[in-house]
Amino acid sequence: MKTYITSLFIVAAMIASGCSSNNKNQASKESHEHAEGDGHDHSEGDGHDHEGGHSEEISFTKKQAEAVGLKTETVTPGTFSYVIKTSGQILSAQGDEATIVATSNGIVSFTNPSISDGAAIRTGEAIVTISAKNLLEGDPAAKAQIAYETAKKEYQRAEGLVKTQIISAKEFEQVRLRYETAKTVYEAQSASMTKNGVKVTSPINGYIKKRLVSQGEYVSVGQPIATVSQNRRLQLRAEVSENYFKSLNSISSANFQTAYDNAVYKLSDLNGRLLSFGRASGGQSFYIPVTFEFDNIGDFIPGSFVSVYLLSKPQANIISVPTSAVTEEQGLNFVYLQLDEEGYKKQEVNLGQSNGDRVQVLSGLKAGDKAVVKGVYQVKLAAVSSVMPEGHSH
After folding, report:
1. Integer distance in angstroms from the first to the last C-alpha of the chain?
2. Which keywords does UniProt give here (predicted)?
3. What are phi and psi of 238, to 5 degrees?
């Protein structure tokens, strides 16, 4: 009995000891939890939230800005025309282009075998010579000379015979006609005859637009050899979908962008004017031609294809920025704003229409903002390199 009671005391002591240990563990746990929530949580409540506030500011020093030639533009609402974007082609204006044709049958030899499209040429300058000396049909220039000399002798003989009435006046007229024809052919070729053949010259000053034959190729009389363009005035022909037909009568001007220099040109700066727009460009086409004319004061290539921005109804109080101010990342568009002398901010924007030079901003900017329009790429790089690590986060 005494042994049994002693055992009960031992069990009771062990239970009490276990309860005390559990209480201490619980208190320690609560104390630790209190320490984690006492305002020292650096990941949520210490005021170093790097997702907002000053952490969005991009540091770009004044010295860096000067080095890259950084420029800004103050956002100001203004007029922005409704834009119809399409494709088009630059063409030579009528009267500014001439086709050089062969004046004789024979083999073509370019005066300068390396002459190519775009080469400058003067009025009266020989482009090719045409020779038939080694052809079976004979040299037409030599044949023309022989025909002329024969007809001339026959004509001089007929003059004496008609006076003595040995031949009739009708027969004399036939002889005279053959002589005049042979003389015309001979004189036309003798003026351009050289020891190498008949030379063919350009009728106007300009540039070789296109060579239509190759060195050593056989040509016939009247066959086109090359086209020459003066390039004083050019035409811009845009092809517009029939869906925009009702908007065509309000088109006033256009901008266009070439593929070879990516520059955007404004017809308003090139003395451009609208010539016409048709109802259809062809029986099998669903596009309407719109034609402009402008001064060729740039390095434009007639025949080249361009992107065209037709400018229609002007809209007032529209916010826009130069296309150079906009960057794109994963389908989103951004503009970098200058906050102060050395502080910048990346601002998401929603864009509207573009006229090639400027783009409409639907949201994200307000009047008075200073948008970076030159040096955008450098500011973007600075934004990436200035991201601060979250060193206080647990």
Report:
1. 61
2. Transport
3. -105, 145
Classify 23 as helix, strand or coil.
helix
CA 309 to chain centre: 11
Instruction: Please name each of the domains of the chain with its CATH number.
Output: 53-77+319-385 (2.40.420.20), 83-94+232-314 (2.40.30.170), 99-229 (1.10.287.470)
Strand partners, 218: 107
Radius of gyration (C-alpha) of the chain in whole angstroms: 43
- pTM (whole model) above 0.70: no
Determine contact, residues 250/343, Cβ cutoff 8 Å. Answer: no
Which two tokens mark 67? 């080095």
SS3 230: coil
Both tokens of 276, joined, read 């016409």
Give Cα 346 distance to the centre of its chain: 29
Closest to 305 measured CA to CA, from 265, 264, 257: 257
Both tokens of 120, joined, read: 């400058």
The angle at the Cα of 261, spanning 256 to 267, to the nearest 5 degrees, equals 25
DSSP string, 238-273: EEEEGGGGGGGGG--EEEEEETTT--EEEGGGTT-E
Instruction: Find out whether 170 and 83 touch, Cβ atoms under 8 Å.
Output: no
* Burial group, residue 101, by CB count within 10 angstroms (0-12, 13-18, 19+): middle
- pLDDT attached to residue 301: 81
- Tens of pLDDT, residue by residue over 25-55, are 444 444 444 444 444 444 343 433 433 344 5
